[in-house]
Amino acid sequence: MAGKIDARLVELGITLPEPPVPVASYKPWVISGNQAVIAGQVTFLDGKLKYVGRIGEAISVEDACAATRLCALNVLAQLRAACGGDLDRVRQVVRLNAFFNCTPDFLDHPKVMNAASDLMAEIFGDEGRHTRVGVGVNSLPLGVPVELDGTFEIS
């Protein structure tokens, strides 16, 4: 029988991607005590980068939101793996951190970050509300517009 969160994903029409394979020397997630810490996830979908470019140049705000949502889905895919396939183990989304590869005059960080924050709240309800940081940077690995990581309390 599917768990509560799996049923919620179906209700929302969300299919989590396969967890992306790390592109360097790191673990995609670590369990420490009652926390799952998920490494930075980028815009991989089916083994390929879906979004590449700088927000404010090649990437519009709308595409930046879609890229951020994809990163959040990849975070959740890694979280599901960390939880042995059972997202019902998630007690709280504690913190999300996003880095946006953007032009110096870009100011819509909160709007773009909401693509990840709103997704967590849709899926986990009150337990999906979290602290967050979203900052602009002048480059990111592989030329992606967004990198997102997260910390989750689990049972």
Tally of discrete structural domains: 1
The sequence of SSEs as H and E is HEEEEHEHEE
**Oligomeric nature of the chains:** single chain
Q: So, the CATH homologous superfamily? A: RutC-like
Return the structural class.
alpha+beta
State the CATH class: Alpha Beta
Tally of DSSP β-strands: 7
Number of helices: 3
**Helix percentage:** 25-40%
Largest sheet: 5 strands, mixed
Q: What is the name of the CATH topology?
A: 60s Ribosomal Protein L30, Chain: A
| Terminal residue distance | 19 Å
Low-confidence stretches: none
- What is the mean pLDDT? 97
Approximate strand percentage: 25-35%
Radius of gyration: 15 Å
What's the arrangement of strands in the largest beta sheet?
1-2-7-5-6
Quickly give the CATH architecture: 2-Layer Sandwich
Description of the molecule:
The protein is α+β, with helices and mostly antiparallel strands and 155 residues long. The chain has a single domain (31-154), classed as RutC-like (60s Ribosomal Protein L30, Chain: A, 2-Layer Sandwich). The chain has helices spanning 4-12, 61-82, 109-124; strands at residues 29-32, 35-41, 44-45, 48-49, 90-101, 131-137, 146-154. Strands 1-2-7-5-6 form a 5-stranded mixed β-sheet. It has a two-stranded antiparallel sheet with strand order 3-4. A hairpin with a 2-residue loop joins strand 3 and strand 4. Helix 2 (61-82) runs parallel beside helix 3 (109-124). The protein is globular, with a radius of gyration of 15 Å. The model has no long low-confidence stretch (mean pLDDT 97).
Keyword list:
60s Ribosomal Protein L30, Chain: A, alpha+beta, 155 residues, 3 helices, two-stranded antiparallel ribbon
